[in-house]
Amino acid sequence: MNKKYGVIAGSALIVGMLFMCAKRPEPPALPVENAVESLTLTPAGFGRLNGFEKDDVLQALPALKKSCAVLGKKEKAWRGFCEKMNAAAFETADDLRAFIKREMRVFAVNEGQTGLFTGYYEPEIAGSPVKTDEYAVPVYALPDDIVKINLAAFNPKFKGEVLFGKQTGREIKPYMTRRDIETNGVPAETIAWVKETADLFILQIQGSGILIYPDGKRIGIGYAGDNGRVFTGIGGVMAKRGLLKKGVSTMAEIRQWLIDNPEQARELMRENDRYIFFKRLDSVGAVGSLGVKLTAGRSLAVDPAFVPLGSFLWLETTAPDGSALNRLVTAQDTGSAIKGAIRGDFFWGTGEQALKQAGRMKSKGTYYLLLPERYDLNGR
Description:
By secondary structure, the protein is of the alpha+beta class. The protein is built from ten helices and 18 strands. Residues 4-36 have low confidence and may be disordered.
């Protein structure tokens, strides 16, 4: 969904940001470097995975097959594994579990370290295909005069980094700020209209969503690009100004404050220069950076500088209610705030119930990388 920021909950982070059997000799730990930190993969066994024998892994199978549809086209080891998985008939979770244990190996990521896991969701927002007195906030497509730069094409160390800007003579400069865009508009198609600037702002945080038109029609929209400006979390600004209640502040509460205080809200939201542009999707359902539809409870946003998109991961963290959230997931999305070797954003699904979970999640945890038995680590 190329989810741009992620829903971060609790007064610390939602406020701070707001708004991934045959025995054979195992290779040594494999370091992967980038400009900021390193990732080390250490061989581990399935016995290390807390709760693996209890997880209903069949629920993850649709997500795994979606990742395989991409991975199987790129790498020989994944192609062989995915062909076997797609050809098999798994009647029970134990059948799939036995297959994974036979065909894959487990690697601990940065042994002994933990990272942060947050949650996000797909919002449902009232919208209209035409402007009216009620629906007057534009949802813009990617402007005609914006330039996209894939930095990895210039240097592999910038894998996953994309910049957007505007060409001025021979230079590429940052595009207009949020304030400039809201004040002057942009040379772009308006793909829809919504009621509240706050709803558009939250839609931009999540990166995709569903617009519900007055006639009941549901339209999926997703991330098309951004203005290349630095993200600033308005939650932190609100906290400093004493605008938030002490304790836990959820995204729903912050949204309501923004709607109830439109004049202050407009200026607060403009503290965040980053602006997201959208495109219509062929169908409803959040689409991640891997290019496949996300699966509630089984898709994870990761930092692709460390964890390749499509990777199978065993996640060990904690749900908002304090219960263990240990399950098989796959890395299908990214996010501007999702940075680091052990960092993830858990996709809870669509609508209000998903928001209640996503908006409160802020947990320590880790994950293990699962790779096909024949995967060549030295070729990564």
